[in-house]
Amino acid sequence: xxxxxxxxxxxxxxxxxxxxxxxxxxxxxxxxxxxxxxxxxxxxxxxxxxxxxxxxxxxxxxxxxxxxxxxxxxxxxxxxxxxxxxxxxxxxxxxxxxxxxxxxxxxxxxxxxxxxxxxxxxxxxxxxxxxxxxxxxxxxxxxxxxxxxxxxxxxxxxxxxxxxxxxxxxxxxxxxxxxxxxxxxxxxxxxxxxxxxxxxxxxxxxxxxxx
Length: 211
Description:
disordered C terminus; hypothetical protein yedk fold; mainly beta
């Protein structure tokens, strides 16, 4: 699951996509986010199929069932611009947030979008986490390089990228738990992080809900 992410390097965003944005250290569902279709534009980060009687407000879509679920029929494709994301590791009643990044470089998530009641909304495509990231969570967003992103937009199913092997992560403060906190402290490493047990079943009992 990807429930929060960051877009901090505004100069890189402007160079790459010609878009002027404010830095965000805690992008949350339902907010306006920068995406790329045949152009750079903003959409709501929540997805509802056009036929739904009530909003579904989905934020993620599993790559494994993307072509099977009725909710994702006749979707359009997009790329969601990011430079990091957060996951929470549950240990009993405690949920410890972690920040994932690729040397703080800009990248894109594979995404889908549709228009619901006149408003465009998008969702992040996810897949099973690789061995390293699965210590924290069993799912991860599909990350794409430039050429892979073009292929995705052109209809090719691209769910694997070497970018996934370049991800680093560290523990951060629970200040990120509140969507109202959009500050650099959201990505500041904890001074005294707790150890991660490589043998722990980190997905057991995890409800995948946003804290």
